[in-house]
Specification:
By secondary structure, the chain is of the alpha/beta class. The chain has three domains: 185 residues, FAD/NAD(P)-binding domain (3-Layer(bba) Sandwich); 112 residues, no CATH class; 139 residues. Helix content is 38%, strand content 19%. It is built from 20 helices and 21 strands. A seven-stranded mixed β-sheet has the order 9-8-17-18-19-16-20. It is globular.
Length: 523
């Protein structure tokens, strides 16, 4: 239901303008319409809506670009399931990934993350029988951090003055966990290097290795999957597709190929946007789901009130960039016995050292690979693409390796760039063949995206996939909330919450609640 701005430019005015059609932006627009009766126009520079929930196709194949698995969505009556139900049309379905959702592969050994907290604990103790006390303490800290997150995120919804009067009490317990790194916490619990690596192995899900990431983020991510993992039936694009009717039903619009050039100010407050074609769209309410860094690029340099977020960008770095190899196979997932479980592949238990060595030298051994088998997870894939299967192989890389080609056009960046991609493609395929030998000889498509792909399509200047990095410093920044100090301008999405579908959903509900002046979260 999204409309191309090139074909239909829509109205000149609206109650609200939302910049970016990621999940945070779509949720905010849907809530503004359904709960406040506001007509919202969502503006997306990409040719498709959905942010990192969108998919793309090549003849015979389809891949997701950011959604590989999601937790806590199976019950529409509570948690993320209820949040999704509140902003979708009821057509969104989820398929369970089964008993095992993540497999950790390190140096020829494998460990499984199984569904159910008690079963997960029992499996870990079975693997590491001498480490039961450390495993139990780890789970206690995960629970404590996630329980305390309620106050931390609730503080973002109350007026700044009220939060200041509280002296930080709402966030205090959470910040005790957020100030510590994942590596510090796990290292205090065990000296077993294999266990430490297995417990930290999901770190690329938020993009910062154990020695640098906030334990609070790690705890939220880990807890997110304890009740199992799910994949959207019909592919990740179904998520955005199920939200668009809600926005349209309230008189709103979602326009793609619609690039915003600047946020307009009048009398010191947001008054609309100027498009790339110089057309002005007016609204008294502007919401940005473009991320803090991109929002600051759109905001005039002289804008009063921007200094707080400029300070955040000076102190908090962008998150990780990545390579993703999209593989198309001429046999089915069933034929090749591909798993629903993701596989986290590491060359050794030294997770921090391996990524440090790889980022210093692109010819060093690849430090990690996340391998996802979407066609095995999606029960509707075989109907849509009979006789085929897909795989995605992801690794983390520094943006600087690709920066010199940033000014060249997409798909025309020159032979040296293409050669670099070819070498990485071969190396990632070797990892895939190690993990899933049955795929050898069945590869028809192997297309590599780089940080420049993310920059081109998502408009993130350094190809970052998770917005601002999830470091201890990030969680201490109180300006990362829906309200900005520019009247009429609000933020939504992952940068005011956390990364992932859950973080984007929560960000959308937070912003909607702040604008409404009352909680909009499902009870």
């Amino acid at each position: 239901m999204a409309t191309s701005y090139k074909r239909d430019r829509g109205p000149d005015t609206a109650d609200a303008i939302v910049i970016g059609s990621g999940v945070g932006g779509l949720v905010t627009a849907a809530l503004l319409g359904a709960k406040l009766g506001k007509r919202a126009i969502v503006l997306e520079r990409h040719y498709t809506a959905g942010g990192f929930t969108h998919t793309f196709r090549r003849p015979g194949y389809e891949w997701d670009v950011g959604i590989h698995y999601v937790g806590q969505v199976n019950d529409p009556g509570r948690g993320l399931g209820a949040m999704l139900a509140g902003v979708t049309d009821g057509s969104l379905q989820w398929a369970s990934m089964g008993d095992v959702y993540d497999t950790i592969a390190i140096g020829g050994q494998r460990w499984e993350y199984v569904t159910g907290l008690e079963r997960w604990r029992a499996r870990m103790v079975e693997y590491f029988p001498r480490e039961a006390a450390g495993i139990d303490r780890y789970l206690q800290l995960v629970r404590a951090a996630t329980r305390s997150s309620t106050g931390f995120f609730a503080e973002k919804a109350v007026p700044r003055a009220i939060a200041a009067l509280g002296g930080g009490l709402m966030r205090a317990k959470f910040m005790k966990h957020a100030r510590r790194t994942t590596g510090d916490v796990i290292g205090s619990l065990t000296s077993d290097r294999a266990l430490a690596a297995v417990l930290a192995a999901q770190w690329p899900d938020y993009g910062l290795p154990p020695a640098q990431s906030s334990f609070a983020m790690h705890a939220i991510l880990t807890r997110h999957y304890f009740d199992g993992a799910y994949y959207p039936v019909g592919g990740a694009s179904r998520i955005a597709a199920s939200m668009l009717p809600r926005i349209e039903a309230s008189g709103g619009r979602v326009l793609v190929d619609a690039e915003v050039q600047e946020i307009l100010l009048e009398g010191g407050r947001a008054a609309g946007v100027r498009m790339a074609d110089n057309r002005e769209l007016r609204a008294s309410l502007v919401v940005s789901d473009a991320g803090v860094a991109t929002t600051m690029r759109l905001l005039p340099a002289e804008a009063p009130g921007r200094e707080g977020l400029d300070g955040v960008l000076a102190r908090v770095k962008p998150s990780a960039a990545h390579l993703c190899l999209y593989v198309g196979l001429t046999r089915t997932a069933e034929d090749m016995k591909l798993p629903r479980s993701n596989v986290w592949w590491y060359p050794s238990t030294d997770l921090d050292g391996d990524i440090e060595r790889f980022e210093a030298d692109p010819d060093a051994p690849i430090s990690l690979a996340f391998v996802s088998f979407p066609s095995a997870k999606d029960p509707a894939f075989a109907t849509r693409f009979p006789g085929r299967a897909t795989v995605e192989v992801v690794t983390v890389v520094p943006y600087r390796w690709f920066e010199r080609w940033a000014g060249a056009p997409w798909r025309r960046r020159g032979q040296e760039y293409d050669d670099l991609k070819t070498r990485f493609t071969a190396r990632l395929l070797d990892i895939l063949y190690t993990i899933a030998p049955s795929t050898r000889g069945a590869v028809e498509v192997a297309e590599l995206s780089t940080p420049l792909s993310t920059r081109h399509f998502a408009n993130f200047a350094q190809g970052e996939i998770y917005g601002l990095e999830h470091s201890p410093q990030r969680f201490g920044e109180r300006d990362l909330q829906p309200r900005t100090k520019v009247p009429g301008l609000f933020l939504t999405g992952c940068d005011i919450s956390t990364c992932g579908l859950g973080g984007a959903l929560a960000g959308g509900y937070l912003t909607g609640s702040v604008i409404a002046g009352r909680p909009l979260f499902p009870r």
